[in-house]
Every structure is written in C-alpha cells, then in structure tokens.
Amino acid sequence: MLVSSQEKLPDATGERFFTARPVPPAVLPEWLVVGLWLSGGLGVLIAVIFVAGTRFAPDGGPHATYATGEGRRRIEIREYLSAIGEEFAEDHFVEGQHVAFYLPKRDVAITFDARAYFRIERSPTYAVLVEHEMPGMHLGDRLPFETPDLSDADDEDHVDPTDAAFAVLGVPQGATLSEVKRAYREKVKEVHPDHGGDREEFQQVREAYTAAKNRVG
Fold first, then answer.
1. Residue of 82, 84, 97, 151 whose CA lies nearest to 128
2. DSSP for 59-114, written as a single string
3. Ordered mean pLDDT values, 10 residues apiece, the chain (217 residues)
4. Can you state the percent helix, strand and coil of the chain, rounding each to 5?
5. How do the domains of the chain map onto residue ranges?
6. Domain at 69-153, CATH homologous superfamily
7. What's the pTM?
8. What pLDDT was estimated at residue 105?
9. Quick one: fold of 161-216?
10. Closest of 109, 141, 114 to residue 127, by C-alpha
C-alpha cells in the first residue's frame, strides 16, 4: 500500500499549493523477519510438547510411579505392616488430611506430609511422620504400640540358598554331580513350558541346578 505525503509546490501565479506524493511502504529488516518466524515456531513446539506431556504422562497422584522415594517406602511399609499382621488402609483421610496409611484398630495415621502430620497431631489420632529416606522396616520404632522383632524371625527362618537348591531338585545335599545332573534332567521334563509346565518354576529349577552344580563341582 502506498502512503501519501504532501509537498508544497508553486503554481503559475507564483502561489504555492500542496500535492500528494506516494511513499513506498516500510520494509522490515530480514533479520527481524527471521527472528519472528523462529520465535513463533519455538512457541508452537513448546505448546506441542506440553500437551503431549500432560496426555501421555499425567500425574499419578497417591499411586504415582514406585520409582520415586515415596513409592519405594510405600511398598516397604505395606510389606512391614503385613508381616506384623497389622490391619491397615491406604490413602485414607484423617481429620480432613490425606494420609498414606491408617491403622483403624490402633487409630494411627502414617503420612509423608509434614503439614498433615502437625494437623493430625492436634487430634486424638496418633500421627506418625515418615521421611522418604527411612526404610519401611524402621516404622516399628515410631509406632505407639509394641511390634514383633522381625529380624529374629528372619534369622530363624533363614534357609541357605544352596541347600534349597538341592531340595528343589529333589536330591540330598550330599548328592554327586551325576546325581544332580540326572535329577535336573528329570525335573526339567516336568516343568518345561513346552511340555505344559510353568515358566517361573522352570526358571527356578534352572537356577537350582546351577547352584547345586557349583556346590558339588
């Protein structure tokens, strides 16, 4: 589009008058045009990444991936409470606060959130704050009731892996290498997945054979 400007020129009588003169439109520098295109493209790319991230990797909430510190502790605490025979509920609400575990028979709330801990602490419910770095087996030290010592039970129930390997193969611990091999061949026929056996049991037999063979070899 042409832009008009006015210029005062003299006429035949010597008087001056104004006339319009076209002015070419302003042209943006090339570097500025390139910059605008690049910034626009970058903005679109960021928007696409953001939308894809929210769609394919949404927030998991209280059941977020167990690769996180809290996820690992949840597994350990769940296993510990089950091991001591304590009834519990997960992702419970106590005094309006979300807690990771709640023990209904003991009225004990276990949480990773310090704010929830301090708010529950003012109520009749006993609150336990668990740091993400604390192993779940140490929870018993913070509970307001006596818990069994699982370390002693583990020592009593401990079974040597190599001794268990002979048991899996069905041979005595003093068996010879040839007896171990023969037992392995017979056992594999029973549990091989191609013969209708269980894959996990088949893997267990293979591992047992390796352990027993190393012992007698």
1. 97
2. --GGG--TTSHHHHHHHHHHHHHHHTT---EEEEEETTEEEEEEETTTTEEEES-H
3. 49 52 60 70 69 47 48 86 91 93 95 92 93 83 88 54 78 87 88 81 83 79
4. 50, 15, 30
5. 69-153, 161-216
6. VSR Endonuclease (3.40.960.10)
7. 0.43
8. 94
9. Helix Hairpins (1.10.287)
10. 109
**Structure confidence at residue 117 (pLDDT):** 92
Residue 34 amino acid letter: V
Predicted confidence at residue 89, as pLDDT, reads 92
* The two three-digit tokens of residue 214, written as one number: 């190393």
Q: Measure Cα distances from 188 to 101, 141, 165, 195 in Å.
A: 44, 46, 14, 9
Tell me the residue length of the chain: 217
Strands 3-10, 97-103: pairing is unpaired
Which token pair is 141?
């030290």
What's at 49, amino acid-wise?
Answer: I
CA distances to 102, 136, 147, 212 from 81, rounded to whole Å, are: 11, 9, 10, 35
Q: pLDDT at position 145, please?
A: 92
